[in-house]
Design goal:
Radius of gyration of chain A: 21 Å
Structural class of chain A: alpha/beta
Low-confidence stretches of chain A: none
Largest sheet of chain A: 7 strands, mixed
Shape of chain A: globular
Strand order of the largest sheet of chain A: 2-8-7-6-5-3-4
Number of strands of chain A: 15
CATH class of the largest domain in chain A: Alpha Beta
Mean pLDDT of chain A: 97
Oligomer: homodimer
Number of domains of chain A: 2
Order of helices and strands of chain A: HEHHEHEHEEHEEHEEEHHHEEHEEEH
Number of helices of chain A: 12
Chain lengths: 394, 394
């Protein structure tokens, strides 16, 4: 037996371990200081009452022979796929039910989808980026190239026709930069993908944070995307499902090449390597799309959005350049006074006892930048903003 | 972009579609006849009351900010891994908590584990077999060779030192044949794997049906297995979790080669391509291991085991050769009167209105054999047995 030695090409990620270690050291040396964490990428509000009600009711169904559910459909139950399809209709996007696959989260499918593509494909990933796009491809031995996301392009790189590639990752609103493509910008990527015969893997995990109608909530709002783009979405950030695990992947029927169809090939992959999402969880996810569910979900989202606004306004007042803050739970700021990412991390920890995430951990273009998130409580966010203002005001 | 053309090497599976189609045709032509299904591989009894209680309680935790759970540990919550480790102790098997990975089912991990192995590895699979072992490897471009499971070896093939391979699949008790290795037989496979530097992927999904103490419930009951075997297990058949989705994979720390460690590599794979099993489901799974939970689970298992016994006794009375029936929910019988698998399928459907699964669908050595399962209700099983006896008695 031999191991897959491509794993040796993946960089060990010390980012969050190093953050934790520096915070632990500081706290041990300053037991009297209250450390505020704005580095967290996880939700903190509980599941919505409608979701809880649906979960309880589904558990009850599992307790009786007459309503017990065994193996479910590989693609997910039709009641949930119908709800998802209805959710897309509000954007003017019409999906067939068999174009929707219920998953246990966007992360799983973003990695697993690569099974259906050749290992010889060249992959284009923005830098900085959510590290799993790169790692899942390096594991499989694929060549990864980068598009440069920088202050100059507002961390929204545009296609370069001089570059050839097969698989294009787009995350919008972006993690970690919070930057989101408008429909015109996304159209350029779709046109490029069609010209290059490439496929776009579109990570829409943060779509529910978008309020500006010129921005795309789905790649399918852009003409031509149905021929080249696969969209991944999740209930994690939309409805607080990070610990409940449900998402969905859209693969239009029209994506095919030389007689091979992406939708059918993915179905074959899923039927062979996956057995569906728990019935209970699918019932909970469907409750997100009811009238009452949407109302409750939007209240939770409004809470996080207000946190993001507080942080963004703080940066505005301090004259600090940033992306995100609006249409995103992330604020990606340029470290003041020319500090490096880790230098600013230490500065903020020591002087304001506020913890964020050094941008350098997301790629070389992240150096000199810093990520704050809106997923903390209102109290913590308000206090953190107050402290940041105090130390950074002239 | 190019697709992974290895998918073209996977045979389309028409087995269950063909079964359904023949049954539908028969029922349409004979609306007055009651068709009894003993082909089902899914459980039919509801979740145990202790599991239901734990699920409700976990849903309540998700409804309050103080007890809400976001992202969980990639390996699964410690409370569940501790329970699993305790479950192994009854067999005299001692596992470290970090050797246990909670999964969303044995099927997912049996496919995904291949990510950590080289694509050049040669895979040894018994014929007949659960089709996903073969398909997941063909997808990745691996060479698959077969060990012959036949009447002569009781459908329990033994290693042939003249054959070289890297990855060995063992499913015991087996799906579809119901045959289970005793510890002595399994020891021969472990010795062979160690001699060949191969890894055993041991599918123990049906271990809870074993009652005979000479048979292995875990591969780790055999000395040396901790250096060469990965074990996959599931709550699906043990506790009726086919629609609730939870399993576990054991990767001993000792499996390594040239500095690469299987446990650490799998952890890296999971951290990159998986985000854990729902907290709610993990709480439900942990309830299976409580005293009350074990008692309830064993009552359900006893129900299925009694069904299996009814079918096995029927075969004994008819003088039909079979494997399984004891220590397994499957009865794998030799079609009487020299009939082929599909010929017997039609014969049974037309003359007794009983539906089973033609063995030919599981590999070439399955031709001439037929699978019946114990997962139906008692009433259906009793009536089916009565009808089979009637048409096959001399």
């Amino acid at each position: 037996m031999n191991f897959n030695l491509n794993f040796n090409n993946i960089a060990e990620s010390y980012l969050f371990a190093e953050v934790d270690s520096r915070v632990a050291k500081y706290s041990a040396e300053h037991p009297d200081k209250q450390v505020l964490k704005l580095g967290i990428g996880d939700v903190t509000l509980p599941l919505a009452p409608e979701v809880i009600k649906a979960l309880h009711s589904a558990v009850d169904e599992m307790s009786k022979k007459e309503t017990f559910k065994g193996y479910g459909p590989y693609k997910g139950y039709e009641f949930l796929r119908k709800s998802i399809s209805g959710y897309y209709k509000r954007l003017g996007v019409s999906l067939e039910l068999d174009e929707i696959f219920v998953s246990d989260g966007a992360k799983s499918d973003l990695g697993n989808i690569l099974d259906i593509f050749s290992e010889k494909n060249v992959v284009l990933v923005p830098d900085p980026v959510y590290p799993v796009y790169v790692d899942t491809n390096l594991m499989a031995g694929r060549k990864v190239i980068y598009s440069e996301a920088t202050e100059a392009n507002g961390f929204l790189p545009m296609p370069d026709y001089g570059v050839d590639c097969d698989i294009i990752y787009i995350c919008s609103p972006n993690n970690p930069t919070g930057a989101a493509y408008d429909k015109a910008g996304l159209k350029k990527w779709v046109d490029y993908a069609l010209a290059k015969n490439a496929v776009i893997l579109y990570d829409a995990a943060y779509e529910s944070f978008i309020e500006d109608n010129t921005l795309a909530r789905s790649v399918y709002e852009v003409e031509g995307a149905e021929k080249c783009a696969i969209e991944f979405c999740s209930f994690s950030k939309t409805a607080g499902f990070t610990g409940t695990r449900c998402g969905y992947t859209v693969i239009p029927r029209a994506i095919e090449k030389e007689g091979v169809n992406a939708n059918r090939t993915w179905f074959r992959r899923q039927a062979t390597k996956f057995n569906g999402v728990p019935y209970i969880v699918q019932k909970g996810a469907a409750a997100v799309f009811t009238e009452q569910g949407q109302k409750q979900i939007n209240e939770n989202l409004a809470y996080y959005k207000a946190n993001a606004k507080l942080i963004a306004e703080c940066m505005d007042q301090l004259g600090i350049w940033y992306t995100g803050g609006k249409n995103s739970p992330y604020i990606w700021l340029k470290c003041p006074k020319g500090m490096g990412s880790w230098e600013f991390f230490d500065y903020l920890l020591e002087n304001a006892q506020v913890v964020g995430t050094p941008g350098a951990g997301f790629g070389k273009n992240g150096e000199g930048y810093f990520r704050l998130t809106a997923f903390g409580s209102r109290e913590v966010t308000e206090e953190a903003v107050k402290r940041i203002k105090k130390i950074l005001s002239k």
